[in-house]
Amino acid sequence: MAVIDYDRAPEFATAGYDSPAASRLHALWETKPGLIGWLSTVDHKELGVRYLVTAFAFLLLGGLEALVMRLQLAQPNEHLLTPEQYNQIFSMHGITMIFLYAQPILSGFSIYLFPLILGTRDMAFPRLNAFSYWAYLAAGLFMYASFLIGAAPNDGWFNYAPYALKQFNPNPNMDFYALGMILLGVSTTAGAANFLVTFLRLRAPGMSINRVPILAWGTTTTSVGILLSVPAVSLAFFLLWLDRQFGTHFYNPDGQGQPLLWQHLFWMFAHPWVYIIVLPAMGIVSDALPIFCRRPLVGYTVVVLATIATMVLGFGVWLHHMFATGLPFLALSFFSGASFIITVPSAVAVFAWIATIWTGRPVFTTAFLYFAGFVSMFVIGGVSGVMTAAVPADRQLTDTYFVVAHIHYVLIGINLFPVLGGLHVWFPKMTGRMLSERLGRWSFWTVFAGFNMAFLPMHWTGLAGMPRRIYTYPEGMGWDTVNLITTIGAFVLAAGILIFLANIALSRRNGRFAGPNPWDGPTLEWSTPSPPPPYNFPVIPAVASRHPLWEDRLDEGLGRSSIRRGVVLDHGKEALATSTLDGEPDAILKMPEDSLSPLVATIVMTAAFAGLLLHWWMFAGAYAALLLAATIVWLWPERELGQRAEASHG
Amino acid sequence: MADVTDLERLPIGSIGHRASGWWGMLAVIMTEGALFSYLLFSYYYFAVQYGREFLPPHLPKLHLSVPNTALLLLSSVAVWWAEQGAKLGDRRRLALGLAAALIMGVGFVAIQALEWSEQSFTIASSSYGSLFFTITGFHMAHVIAGDIVLAVLLLWTLLGYFDARRNAAVSIGAIYWHFVDAVWLTLFFTFYVTPRLS
Amino acid sequence: MTWSRPVPNQRRRSRQLKAWIAALAVSALCASAASAETPLGYLEGFGVKTREIAHLTWALLILSIAVVVITSALVVIGALVRRSRAPAGNIEQEPVSRSGRGVAWITIGVTVSTVALIGSMAWTAYTMAAIRAPSQDPAVTIEVIGHQWWWQVRYLSDDPSRVFDTANEIHVPVGKPVRVRVKTADVIHSFWVPAVSDKIDLIPNQTNETWFQADKAGIYRGQCSEYCGKQHAHMGMVLVAEDEANFKAWWDAQLKPAAEPEKPELVRAEGVFLQRCGACHGVRGTSAGGRFGPDLSHLMSRRTIAAATLPNDPGHLSGWIADPQHVKPGSLMPNLDISGPELASVRTYLATLN
After folding, report:
1. Subunit contact A200:B32, Cβ cutoff 8 A
2. Domain ranges of chain A
3. Would the CB atoms of A358 and C74 count as touching at under 8 Å?
4. pLDDT in tens, A200-236
5. Which of A596, B198, C189, C252 is 20 to 30 A (C-alpha) from C306?
6. Domain annotation for chain B: domains and CATH numbers
7. Does residue A646 belong to the interface with chain B, where contact is any CB pair within 8 Å?
8. CA distance B98 to chain A (A)
9. Are the folds of C140-255 and C264-350 the same?
10. Which residues contact C306 (CB under 8 A, 6 or more apart)?
11. How far off is chain A from C77, nearest CA to CA, in Å?
12. What are the distances in angstroms from CA A198 to CA A42, A464, B16?
C-alpha cells in the first residue's frame, strides 16, 4: 500500500460471509497462526476471550481462598490457619475478587461484544486493547507473586493506615499490593479510554445514541467512572509506598500524617468502583433478559438515565464507609441521605426487568433462570445496603458479617449471576456451540442454593454481632451453627461452579452446533456467524432501530436496518467513524496490524515496577526509559494508518 | 437510513479532531486531571485540618515561581502558534514553534529544580514537605513527559511527516501541553497564593 | 450428540418449590438459633442509644424483608404466569412482540419505593437526633486507649486523686450517661459494646468522643470493630453496668494501692512478679510501673483476662502466663520461658490483687 489518500467516497455493496469481498477481508484481518501471532494479536474477540478465561481463573483462586477461610470459620476456635495466614488469605480473597475478577470479567464481555453490538470491526485502539490485557495479567501475577515469599497483603483489601505502614508491617506485603494496584490501574485506565472512545466514535451508521445496547451504556458509563476514580486509589497507594519507602508523612501519625486521608482517597475510589463492577453486568441483563422474554426492554430510556445517575451519585456517597470515624453531624446527614437516594435509580432498573418479564413471554432457558434469580439477589443486596445507609443502624451493622452478607449479595448476585447467565447467552456466539441446558440447570440450582445457603444466614450472623476479619471466634456467642451452615453452603456454591465449568469443557467439544442466532436475538452480533470472522461484518451495517433483527416482526413503522448491504471498507484494515449523537459517518479509520509493542511495553513496565519493589532504583530507571522508548516506537506515525503526510499531495 | 447508496467523501486516517488519538488524549486529560484533583484534595485536607501550623515557617517564594509561570504560559502560546502553522502547512513555523516551546519547557523544569533546592523543607521533614514535593513533582513529571512529546513532534516535523491535512499528532500533543499548563495554574494558586491569602 | 433436551414443566415447578422450602427451612433454623444467647447481638438494646437504634434496625429489617418478598414474588409469579410454551432449544416458537403498558410498572414501583425510602430517611433522622446527646450531663468520663490487642481504660475525675487506670473491663453506673473519649496508642481500633453503645473508631492523633447510658444492670461484652492486625479477633472487653452504690464501691476499691505483703512467701512472690512482669505491667502501690501492657492493679476483680479471651480463673491464668503465644499468636506478650516455681509465685502474688 504505497499512498493513503486523504479522503475517499466509500463504495456500497451487498456482500455476505461467502463473498469474495469477505475472503479478502478475512486475509486482511486474520491473525497469523503460531506463537508470534498469539502474542501479537489485536483481535478484540481473541482478547475478550483471554480476559474471560483469566478472570475466571482468578475467580477460582479467590474461591479457593474463600473455601479455606470457611473451613477455618466453620467451628469456633479452629486451628487450621494461623492468624497471619488467615489475614493474608482474607485480604487476597478480597483483592482477587474485587480487582482481578469482578471488573476484568466484565471487560472481557465488553471487549468481545462492543464492536459486534455497535456494528464495527474493532475497538478504537486495538493495540491498547492488547496492552490492557497484558498489563492486567502482569498485575495479577505481580500481586500473587507475594505468596511465593509468604508475604501476601495482610491488611484487608481496604488496607487501612497506619497498620499498612512500615512500623507495623515491615515486610514487603504492602509493597506488592501498592505497586501491583498502580500497575493494574494502568491496565484498567487504558481499557476505559478504549471503551469510551469506541462508544463515542465507532458505532454503525444510524446507531444514534438512543439505539445503543444497554451493555454499551453500562460499560461506557463505568469507563468514565474509572477515568475519574482510579487516580484516587493509584495516588493513595503511591503515597503509601512513599511513606513506607522514604519516610514521607502522608499517613504516618508519628509525624503529622493523617491516617484518615488514606480512607478518604481509598473510598473516593472504592465506592464508585462497586458500581463499576455491577453496572455493565446490569447491562448484560438489560440486553439479554429481553431476548428470553421475547420483547424489547421496558423503559430503555429511563434505564439508561438510571445507569448514568447511579454512576454520578456513586461519587457522592463515599463517606458512608466512614460513619464510625467521628465525622461532623452535618457530614453524616448528607452522606446518609445521598446513600438512601442512590437506591432510586436501582429501583428503576429492577422494575424495568420485572415489567419486561410480566409483559413478555419468558422462555425458561438457563440464562433466563440466572437473570430472574439475579433480580431477587439484587434486591436483597440493595435493601441490606439501605440498612447501612442509616447512620445509627450502620454504627451497629458496620464491620459485622451483616456487611459481608450485603457485599456478597451485590457482588455474586449482581456480578456473578449475570456473568454466568451471559456466558450461556454468548458462549454459542464465541465458540459456535451451545452449552448444555441440562447441565446448565443443574449448575444454576446448585449455585443458587449454595449461594443463598452460605450468605442468607450471614445477615443473621451479623445481627448477632459477629465482627468481620476475625480468624476465629469463641464458643458461646451463638454463632456456631450458622457458621457451619455458611461453610456448607460455600462448598455447595463451589460445586455449582464446578458443574458450570464442566459444562463449558464438555460443550466446547460436544455441544450442539449453534448457528448465527440460536436465541433469535435482536442485535447486530446475532447477524454474524458463530464464531464471527476476524473482520466481524463484510460490509458495515446501517441500523434504523434498537432491534435490527426484530424490526420486521415488531413492525413499528421505523425504517429498516441494512445488514447485508452497506459501506465496503477493504482498502486495508479499515473501520468507519461516526458522529457521537446521530451516528452519521464522518471518517474512515485505518486500523493497526498485529504488533508486539503492547507485550513489550507490558514486560518493560512490569520490570520497572519489580525494580521499585526490590529497591533496585537504577534497574527501575533503566526500564522506565525503555518503556518510554517502547511507547515512542508504538506511537511512531505510520503511513498505513494515515498518520503521515503524503509527499505526492500538496 | 435505509437505502443510502451515496456518501460524501470521508477523510481517511488521522485527520484533525476526527482522529481517534484526539479523543484518546481527551480521556487521558480527564484521568490526569482527576489525579491532580485528588492531589490537591490531599493538600487542602491537611490545610483545613491543621490550619496555620501546617504551613512551613518559610513559605515557597515567588521570585522564581512567578517568572516560571510566565515562562510556561508563554510556551503554551508558542505551541498554539506552532499548531496554527501546522494547519496552514507551514512546516518552518511548526518547527520553530515546537522548538521554542521545548526550550521553554526545559527551562521550566530547570528553574523549578533550582527552586526545589532552595526550599527549607524536604520531602520527609514534614507533611507539608511531603505534599509540596510530591504534588509539584507529579507536575514536573508531566512537564518532562510533555518536553519529550514536544521533542518527538519536532523530530517528526523535521522528518516531514506533517502537512496541512495530516497533523493530528501536533494537535494531540498541543492539547496535552495546554493541559499541563492549566494544571500548573491550579498548583501555583494552591501553593503560592492561598497561604498568603489568610 | 445433542445436549439440549427440554425438561417437563411439572418437574421444573416442583424443583422451584423445593428450593423455596429449603430456603424457609434454613431461615427457621436460623430463627431457632436466634433464641440462643448472642452476647454481641444488638437487636435488643440495653441502653438509651441502643434501644433507639434497635427500633430503627428492626423497622428497616422488616421493611427490607417485605420488599424482598414482594419483588421476589413478582419475579417468580410473573415468570410462571407469563411463561412461554416454547422450549429452551427452540426459542423462535415464541413470537417476538411488544405489548402492554410496561412503563407503568416502573412508575408505580419507583413511587412506592421512594415513599418507603423517605419514611426510612425520616425515621433515621429522628434516631440520629435522639441519640446525638444525653439528656443530662455525663456522670462519668472515661478515656479508652486502644492498644494492639487490649484496652487501656482511664477513669477521669475533677479530683486528681480519683483518677486511675485499669484494662479490658469497664464499670458504669446504670441509668446515668457516661462520656467516652477514645484514643489509640498504635493503629486504628473501634470501640463497641453492642448492648449499650454503637461503634466509635480510635484514630491516631485524634480523640473521638461518644456517650452511652446503660439502662439495665448486667454484664455486657464488647469487641474491637476495626481490623487492627493479627489478634484483632481476640481484642474483646467486658462492660459491667451496676447500681450507683456498687459502682462507687468498685471505684473506691480500684483506687486502693496493692497491700504491702507481710508473709515471707508473699514477699518472695512479689519479688518474682516484679522481676518477670514489672517491666511491662503496672501495679499501683508497688515499683512495677510498666506501661507496655495492661495495668494489673486489681486483676482479680476482673472476670476475664487477655482482653476477654479467657475466663479469669487460676487454670487459664497460668496457661496464659506460661504460653501467651499459644492463646494469642502474635500477641505482644512474649513467651517468658517461665519455670514452674516462678509461675506458681507469680500466680500467688496475682491472687492478692483484688
Report:
1. no
2. 11-37+519-590, 38-510
3. yes
4. 999 999 999 999 999 999 999 999 999 999 999 999 9
5. C252
6. 16-197 (1.20.120.80)
7. yes
8. 17
9. yes
10. C150, C234, C320, C324, C327, C328, C331
11. 9
12. 15, 49, 17
